[in-house]
Specification:
Number of helices: 19
Strand order of the largest sheet: 4-3-7-10
Largest sheet: 4 strands, mixed
Number of strands: 23
Shape: globular
Length: 580
C-alpha cells in the first residue's frame, strides 16, 4: 500500500477538522514532517468551553501520535530507558521512607504511629478481600500466557515452542518447583532430558507507545510467569467473591462512571504517571498479609537484564540491574496487585474521612447488568469498592471532594499523580479506561496506529479508524466529512472495496452505510462479503509427540492443523457472512 495514499488520508482528516492547528498539521504532514505532528501536545480540557472545541483539538493531537513510522533522528529506546530509571529512583526513595516507617526510624513518633495504624488497616482490608494466605499450590489455576518468556523469543513463543525449550526460573521459585515437577510440562521435559535453567531475573524489552517513545515491559522466566498468572487469577477471583467487584466487567463500569461524573462532578478520575514501575517493594510489604507477600515475592524477578543503551552522554553495556520496584508490566500478577493496593489504600482513607457516603445521584447504582442495586431518592451507603470507589489497575475513581486528600496518600506511598490527566472539581471533563467525556459527550479521539505496508488487505483497520474520527466530527457539525475517506477507499483493490458492512463485524469489513453493502440472500438470510485474515498455522509434524501431547493437555485440543504463532503469515480470504 502506497505510503503517500495513507498520508493523503491523514492530511485530509486534518483539513476536515478545520482549526488553525489542524490546518498547520495538514501542511506539515503533506511535507512529510511526521515528527512535527507526533509532537503536537494534548490539549487541556480545562481551557475549552464546549465538547466540540475540545474534540477537534484533541483529535488533531491524537491522530498521528501513535503511528508506527520510523522518524529520522528519533530514538524511542533512549527516553524509555530514562523513564525506567526514573521509576527505579522513585522506588528507591519510597523503599527508604517506608522501611524507616516500618522500623520506627521516622523523626516524628506520633506521625509514625498514625501511619502504621493506617497501613495496618490497609493490610487487614486486603486480607478480608483475598484471605490471609494464597491458595494451596494444588488449587492454583496455572496457565501459560501468549507472549514471550525469558528464553522464548521472536516467533518462537507459541505453547509448543515453550514446551520444546528449556524452562527458566529464578532461584526463589524453588518453593514452587516440587509442584511444577508434577505437571505435564515437567514430564515432557524429563522425557527429552531438558532441565530447568535458573536465571537471575527478567529481561527488559519495549512495546510501542507513541511515535516518540516506547513502553518498558519485562519478559519473565517461563516457570515464574506460569505461577504469576495463577496468583493473579486467584486475587481476581477472591476479590470478586468477597466484594462483588469483578475485574472482568470493571472497565465498562469505569467508563459509565466517567460519563456520569463529567455531568454531576460527583466523582474525580485519577491518573498516575508510570504507576507499574513505581510500586515499591516496601509498600507491598507494608500492605499485604505476610503470607501473600512471601508468595508473590518468591515469584517475582528481583533483577532485570538491560540491553546496551545510552543514558545521557554515557554508553552502558548490557547487564543486570537489581530492582527497587516489586513487579513490572509483564509480570502475571501486576495488574491484580495494583488493583488491590490502590483500592485498599483508597477505601481505608475514605473510611477514615467519611464513614458513609451521600449518594446525590442515585443513577450511579442503577446498573443491574453489573449487579448493582437500585436506589430511590437520597441514601447513605458505606464507602466501599464498587459503590463510591472504583479501581481498575491504576485507574481510580472516588468522591470528588476527597481527590486532594487521597493524592497526598498516593504521594506518600511513592506515586506521582499526573495532574494533566487527572480531573476533579467543576471541570466538565473526566476520563477513565480509555473513555473521555466532556459534559457527558464522548470526546475520545481516534488514534491511528498502523500504516499498512505493501499488503492492501491490511488497509481495513486504517480505513475504519479514520472513518471513526470523521464520523465523530460529523456528530458535532451535523455534516459529512467523509471526502478523504472516500478518496482513500476508492484507491483500494476492487475485491477489497466490495467487502463493506456494519461496525460490529470489526475489521472483517470496511465500515460503511448499508446502501453500499454488497448483499446476497440465502435461505432468507442476508450475507455480505467479509475478509477472513486466516493465520497460517505451523503443522504439528514440526514437534515431537510428547510436545503435542502436553500442548493438548494445556488447552490446544481444537488446533487440528497445527499451532499458530502470534506473528503468523496471514492468508486473506473473502467469504460470505451473515450480518444479522
Amino acid at each position: 500500500m502506497d505510503l503517500l495514499n495513507q498520508r493523503d488520508l491523514l492530511v485530509g482528516i486534518y483539513r476536515e477538522l478545520g482549526t488553525s492547528l489542524s490546518l498547520e498539521a495538514a501542511r506539515k504532514l503533506a511535507a512529510g514532517d511526521w515528527e512535527w505532528v507526533a509532537r503536537i501536545p494534548a490539549p487541556n480540557p480545562r481551557l475549552f468551553a464546549t465538547p466540540q472545541a475540545f474534540f477537534t483539538e484533541a483529535q488533531t493531537s491524537a491522530l498521528c501520535r501513535k503511528v508506527k513510522v520510523d522518524i529520522p533522528g528519533i530514538d524511542r529506546l533512549a527516553p524509555t530507558i530514562r523513564k525506567w530509571y526514573e521509576g527505579e529512583a522513585a522506588c528507591y526513595k519510597s523503599n527508604e521512607r517506608l522501611s524507616a516507617l516500618r522500623s520506627g526510624r521516622l523523626t516524628t513518633p506520633a506521625d509514625s504511629e498514625a501511619l502504621l495504624e493506617f497501613f495496618s488497616n490497609v493490610r487487614k482490608k486486603i486480607a478480608s478481600w483475598i484471605g490471609h494466605a494464597p491458595p494451596g499450590l494444588d488449587s492454583l489455576s496455572t496457565r501459560h500466557g501468549p507472549g514471550a518468556t525469558f528464553s522464548d523469543k521472536g516467533r518462537l513463543t507459541t505453547l509448543a515452542d515453550k514446551m520444546s525449550g528449556s524452562p527458566t526460573l529464578t532461584r526463589d521459585v524453588g518453593w514452587f518447583l516440587l509442584d511444577w515437577m508434577g505437571t505435564a510440562w515437567a514430564a515432557s521435559c524429563r522425557s527429552s532430558r531438558r532441565a530447568a535453567k535458573v536465571v537471575r531475573g527478567n529481561r527488559f524489552t519495549t512495546a510501542p507507545k507513541t511515535a516518540l517513545i516506547d513502553r518498558a515491559i519485562a519478559i519473565e522466566p517461563s516457570i515464574n510467569i506460569f505461577y504469576q498468572l495463577a496468583m493473579g487469577n486467584a486475587i481476581r477471583e477472591r476479590l470478586r467473591a468477597s466484594t462483588g467487584w469483578d475485574l472482568n466487567h470493571a472497565q465498562e463500569i469505569h467508563r459509565f462512571m466517567a460519563k456520569e461524573a463529567s455531568i454531576s462532578k460527583q466523582f474525580c478520575t485519577i491518573d498516575l504517571s508510570n504507576a507499574s514501575d513505581t510500586v515499591s517493594t516496601e509498600l507491598v510489604r507494608l500492605c499485604l498479609p505476610p503470607a501473600w507477600f512471601q508468595g508473590l515475592d518468591a515469584l517475582r524477578s528481583k533483577e532485570t537484564l538491560l540491553p546496551a543503551h545510552k543514558l545521557g552522554d554515557q554508553k552502558r553495556s548490557s547487564g543486570w540491574c537489581k530492582l527497587e520496584k516489586f513487579s513490572s508490566m509483564g509480570n502475571g500478577f501486576t495488574f491484580e496487585l495494583e488493583t488491590i493496593l490502590f483500592a485498599a489504600l483508597a477505601e481505608t482513607y475514605l473510611e477514615k474521612v467519611r464513614p458513609s457516603d451521600p449518594l446525590r445521584t442515585p443513577s450511579i447504582c442503577e446498573r443491574d447488568e453489573f449487579g448493582y442495586t437500585h436506589l430511590k431518592g437520597k441514601a447513605r451507603v458505606p464507602t466501599r469498592l464498587g459503590t463510591s470507589l472504583f479501581v481498575f489497575g491504576d485507574d481510580i475513581i472516588l468522591p470528588d471532594d476527597e481527590c486532594v486528600g487521597f493524592t497526598a496518600v498516593l504521594n506518600f506511598c511513592g506515586f506521582s499523580v499526573n495532574l494533566e490527566k487527572s480531573f476533579w472539581g467543576d471541570n466538565p471533563f473526566r476520563e477513565s479506561c480509555g473513555a473521555d467525556f466532556f459534559q457527558g459527550v464522548d470526546v475520545r479521539p481516534i488514534f491511528v496506529k498502523d500504516l499498512p505496508d505493501d499488503d492492501p488487505w491490511k488497509s481495513i483497520p486504517l480505513a475504519n479508524s479514520s472513518r471513526g474520527a470523521l464520523e465523530k466530527l460529523k456528530a458535532f457539525t451535523g455534516r459529512s466529512h467523509l471526502g478523504p475517506w472516500h478518496r482513500f477507499v476508492s484507491g483500494l483493490p476492487p475485491e477489497l472495496r466490495r467487502c463493506r458492512g456494519p461496525e460490529h463485524l470489526g475489521d472483517a469489513v470496511i465500515h460503511d452505510s448499508p446502501t453500499r453493502w454488497v448483499v446476497r440472500y440465502r435461505g432468507g438470510m442476508g450475507e455480505i462479503r467479509t475478509v477472513s485474515q486466516g493465520l497460517q498455522p505451523i503443522p504439528w509434524i514440526h514437534w515431537r509427540p510428547d510436545v503435542r501431547l502436553v500442548c493438548r493437555t494445556y488447552g490446544l485440543k481444537d488446533a487440528s492443523e497445527g499451532i499458530t504463532p502470534r506473528d503468523a503469515k496471514r492468508r486473506p480470504n473473502v467469504r460470505w457472512t451473515s450480518y444479522g
